[in-house]
Design a protein that fits this description.
Layout lengths: L5 H11 L5 H21 L3 H33 L4 H21 L8 H30 L2 H19 L19 H17 L11
The structure holds fe (ii) ion (2 copies).
The site of one fe (ii) ion has 6 residues, from α3, α4 and α5.
Length: about 210
């Protein structure tokens, strides 16, 4: 990663991962969400926590959009009566609403961490359904060629969402959490947070230790 900007690293990572199956990409996003949450809970400085919570919100938002645009339409056609599929859309909508609320709440606000915990708890329940029901089902019903095609479509869409001015997020500013980027993006966010932690700046109001 040395020598690359975060944005360049994201592009590189996304390109090299184009041939991955959509189910593996979704699992990787889920794993990184948990990693970034753990990093948040370990961070004490407000500035570092702000970087990490922004990364979590961006990553989860783009992950949800990618699933709804690329993965779920295929699953709904294959098995429209699946109960887990039917409840997933309202769950995605609720997570997007919570992300919007979290973004409007300052890290120093006493409600902030409770909102984040609620979001992560809901996301983890949702992820459990996807990983134990929907992803195995997709791998049963679709062959590897189709899974890889969907993976490519997801990565292409991720890159579009990351382009500034295209309705996506500006990766250069932090990380899009696209989920594409997630591996690199979260690493970048963690690096930024680590720098903030070691920076000799006065501690912002923060009751955490
Ligand atoms: Fe989902
Ligand atoms: Fe997911």
């Amino acid at each position: 990663m040395v020598g690359y900007t975060i944005g360049e690293a994201v592009m590189f990572s996304s390109t090299t991962r184009l041939s991955q199956s959509v189910t593996d990409l979704i699992r990787a996003d889920h794993a990184q969400l948990l990693v970034s949450f753990h990093q948040y809970t370990a961070a004490s400085k407000t500035s570092a926590r702000k970087v990490l919570v922004d990364a979590i919100c961006d990553a989860l938002e783009i992950h949800t959009m990618l699933e709804e645009e690329v993965f779920y339409p295929v699953l709904r056609r294959l098995n429209p009566d699946e109960a887990v599929i039917q409840k997933s859309e309202p769950e995605h909508d609720e997570m997007l609403r919570m992300i919007a609320e979290l973004r409007q709440t300052k890290v120093t606000d006493e409600r902030h961490d409770a909102l984040l915990l609620e979001l992560v708890r809901d996301a983890m329940h949702h992820v459990a359904d996807e990983e134990t029901v929907l992803l195995p089902e997709a791998e049963r019903l679709l062959d590897s060629t189709r899974l890889n095609e969907l993976g490519e479509a997801m990565q292409r869409r991720r890159l579009e969402l990351q382009k500034p001015g295209k309705g996506g997020r500006n990766v250069a500013t932090g990380f899009s959490g696209s989920t594409t980027a997630i591996v690199v993006g979260l690493a970048g966010a963690a690096l930024m947070a680590a720098r903030l932690v070691t920076k000799k700046e006065p501690e912002l109001s923060n009751s955490r230790h």
